[in-house]
Specification:
By secondary structure, this protein is of the alpha/beta class. The chain folds into 2 domains: 142 residues, Response regulator (Rossmann fold); 47 residues, no CATH class. The protein has 7 helices and 7 strands. The strands form 3 sheets. It has a 3-stranded parallel beta sheet with strand order 2-1-3. A two-stranded parallel ribbon has the order 4-5. Helix 1 packs across helix 2. The radius of gyration is 19 Å and the shape is globular. The two termini are 33 Å apart.
């Protein structure tokens, strides 16, 4: 349900905009993660599902992946900016949808030079260490929180003999930041240790 709701919210500003007759709105969705992540696939599927039902005036969706957990270095980000400019420079993009902190930061880095007049609907899928509205003024945002601390009590109620929780994460800065909050939630429970 979340992907469908997100898709409707993301596309509705374009549907309401006064576009020239016969012009299909173009929506560029920038994912922070790579396309193999289940959350990325679910959001992409939800967007495509909603667009497939929209009929002849459906927007055209373009998907790009920043792959922040795999590629964190400045030369990669610069190459990605050049790639995006070359690929989409002559396309009329009507809405930008960065999903996740790294995609929001990526768009903020390039927006003043490019697409400064294109509306932005950013989506925070995890707790962010930056303010999306400060990075992208005049944007709108959707904030979906993954809260391990709130998820832990029902797990413990279901499995009361739980004494150890394994937190598995990658080594990128983004992944380390995500697991820090989860580890803190486990440490606050006296009867459980994290591994």
């Amino acid at each position: 349900m979340l992907p469908v709701l997100f898709a409707w919210l993301a596309i509705s500003p374009i549907a309401a905009a006064a576009l020239p007759s016969g012009h299909a709105a173009s929506v560029l969705v920038l994912f922070a993660e790579d396309p193999t992540q289940p959350s990325t696939q679910a959001l992409e599927d939800g967007l495509e599902d909603v667009v497939a039902r929209a009929g002849p005036n459906a927007p055209v969706l373009y998907f790009e992946y920043i792959e922040a957990t795999r590629f964190e270095d400045a030369p990669y980000r610069a190459a990605m900016r050049r790639f995006m400019r070359d690929k989409y420079g002559d396309r009329g993009i009507d809405l930008l949808v960065p999903i996740g902190q790294s995609a929001i930061e990526f768009l903020a880095d390039m927006r003043n030079d490019w697409w400064s007049d294109v509306p932005v609907l950013y989506v925070a899928t995890h707790a962010m260490t930056v303010d999306g509205r400060a990075l992208l003024p005049d944007s709108a945002g959707l904030d979906f929180r993954y809260d391990f601390a709130q998820a832990l009590p029902p797990v413990i109620a279901l499995l009361p003999d739980t004494r150890h929780v394994a937190l598995i994460s990658g080594t990128s800065a983004l992944e380390r930041a995500r697991v820090t909050g989860s580890a803190a939630a486990v440490r606050r429970r006296d009867s459980i240790r994290s591994a």
